């Protein structure tokens, strides 16, 4: 990676603005490899050097990867002046500049959402050619038939797009069945529109898995946590639950 300005490195780790980090440095509260540094433009390699602020070592992370259990009523956006966003839900310790949701869930859709500042990973994760399937649980207003399952498997033609083949199955039967849907696209309102094309309305929709990564059942709606390296790899695991 090479060396960068010390104030820039600290700001990238959510330790304050560049100006605030510069003040920390000038006050002698920052050390590089055990040596106090008082110039904000001093250079350091955060992946090699040991950085401490007020005596505490900084665990440098080039990027951050978060799992959020998105609740209903929140926008999948970085910021919005009129409504709460998924970024607003993050605790202060997990926030940093440049965070965005990697893929979107509709305002009334809940479940697994990845938030990161790594654009390359988001692109890999969302590109249909990567074959990263998204698994949803849905409650619909009418029974699902074999004809519906076959239509999903063939790829539905909507007014303005053709959907790639998708999986569909029944988890709990009844007049308003609980079903699973597996797609590898993320077009606007896609799952809802696919069911509408079959004469059914989605009453509730939750994303429960991306690739081989399931939503952590310990996360309550609105809660988030960092992903481990092994969990990141699971996103690109082609194995699926269904």
From TrEMBL:
GO molecular function: RNA binding; rRNA pseudouridine synthase activity
Record SUPFAM superfamilies: Alpha-L RNA-binding motif, Pseudouridine synthase
Database matches in InterPro entries: PsdUridine_s_RsuA/RluB/E/F_cat, PsdUridine_synth_cat_dom_sf, PsdUridine_synth_RsuA/RluA, PsdUridine_synth_RsuA/RluB/E/F, PsdUridine_synth_RsuA/RluB_CS, RsuA_PseudoU_synthase, S4_RNA-bd, S4_RNA-bd_sf
Matches recorded under CDD domains: PseudoU_synth_RsuA (cd02553), S4 (cd00165)
PROSITE patterns xrefs: PSI_RSU, S4
The enzyme's E.C. designation: 5.4.99.-
Residue span, RNA-binding S4 domain: 4-62
Record's keyword terms, sorted: Isomerase, RNA-binding
Recorded family membership: Belongs to the pseudouridine synthase RsuA family.
Listed name of the protein: Pseudouridine synthase
